[in-house]
Amino acid sequence: MSTDDNASHDDTQDALQALEARAYAAFDDGELAQAADLFGELIGHAPEIPYLHYMRGLAHKYLRNWPASLQDNLRSAQVRGDFDEATAWNAGIAASALGDWAEARRQWTHCGITLPEGDGAITGDFGVACVRLAPWKDAEVVYMSRIDPVRARIDNVPLPESGFRFGDIVLHDGASTGHRTYGERQVPVFNAMQRLQASDMATFTVFVQCDGPEDVAALEAMTLPGIGTVEDWTATVRRLCRRCSYGTPHRHDDDAGNDDGGGWARERDLGIAAQGRAAVEKLLATWTAAAPGRVLQAIEQREHLLSDPEPGQVWWLGEEEEDERANQG
Fold first, then answer.
1. What are 288-324's pLDDT values in tens digits?
2. Cβ neighbours of residue 299 closer than 8 Å, sequence gap 6 or more
3. In 3D, which of 124, 180, 179 has the Cα closest to residue 152?
4. What are phi and psi of 163, to 5 degrees?
5. Are residues 181 and 121 in contact, defined by beta-carbon separation less than 8 angstroms?
6. Mean pLDDT of the chain
7. R_g over Cα of the chain
8. Minimal CB count within 10 Å: which of 7, 86, 150, 280?
9. Are 202 and 301 in contact (CB under 8 A)?
């Protein structure tokens, strides 16, 4: 090879290294469309390198472009030749999002995961975990029942602002971003990617007064057609005053809205999942009539659209990674 050829080769390598650095920088900055394009340009120069296909598939995954992500990960596996767990998981996530159950089952089997028998959608018991709803926004964390490696049913009543509902089937990422306490054990927290199937339960925000926890327990134990579940948000949620946001008049005490002050807060904010308002009204009429001191103040329903991530958001990090990134910033 001549000196000129060597210089040309070196220049090409330098240009490709600079292009790769730009691709990773765009990904790290949350500029996913740009990252996918840059990794695609690199693939045009070196289609035999598996991690380039994987990285473009990762960018497409967080863009929630499932056909492209599946294609990229399958190509990465083909070029690599041997098994790579991260590639298989991302291919499984994309296939699950697309409802390509044959491919999803193939990938989970490659990962050594035991599945329920059958050829269609996977419906099994993969345990309880937590999911961060809209991790690019407020990232409310709720419990969920996993029905396959990356699909789960929401078990709590999410705040209306999230756009999610009790009973929604959501697609979640495969990597845990943290842990929460469930009973006496720790369960993983996963980022929600999107809603796959909407529940038929709407979310009603209910403001009541009652004398003690036994009153709330009685309401939570009641069953009625059209009612999904009742959740005492005052006990489980720490947020800005919801009553003020709904315009319901009330007295502001220092410990109003929670029980941390050592006493019982009579004013309770409840989330009720129900198929319609009439079922909620009947439930609360029965509850208030059953004991003194139970007061219904308001039933509200406000629908909120699901949000989407914006370019430049790096929302897929774990909680420790987010803290480290914030400290560096």
1. 999 999 999 999 999 999 999 999 999 998 766 766 6
2. 204, 205, 206, 277, 280, 281, 284
3. 124
4. 85, -10
5. no
6. 90
7. 25
8. 7
9. yes
What Cα–Cα distance (Å) separates residue 297 from each residue in 209, 226, 229, 247, 288?
7, 21, 19, 12, 11
**C-beta of residue 227 within 8 angstroms of C-beta of residue 285:** no
Read off the amino acid at residue 280. V
pTM over 0.85: yes
Q: Which helix (H) or strand (E) holds 313?
A: none
Contacts of residues 305-310 at CB distance under 8 Å and 24 or more positions apart, as own/partner, are 305/163, 306/134, 306/163, 306/164, 306/194, 306/195, 307/134, 307/136, 307/137, 307/163, 308/136, 309/62, 309/136, 310/136
**Phi, psi of 232, rounded to the nearest 5 degrees:** -85, 95
- Count CA atoms closer than 13 A to 152's CA, side-chain side: 28
Matching residue, tokens 């420790």: 320
Residue 176 CA to residue 137 CA, distance in Å, equals 18
Joined tokens for residue 131: 């999911």
Q: pLDDT tens for residues 256-294?
A: 445 655 689 999 999 999 999 999 999 999 999 999 999
Cβ–Cβ < 8 Å for 177, 319: yes
Tracing tokens 């480290």 back to the chain, one arrives at 324
Q: Is 42 exposed, middle or buried (0-12, 13-18, 19+ CB in 10 A)?
A: buried
Burial per residue of 264-281, b for 16 or more beta-carbon CB atoms within 10 angstroms, e otherwise = ebbbbbbbbbbeeeebbe
Local structure of residue 165 (DSSP, 8 states): -
Q: How many angstroms separate the Cα of 63 from the Cα of each of 79, 100, 150, 243, 316?
A: 23, 19, 17, 36, 11
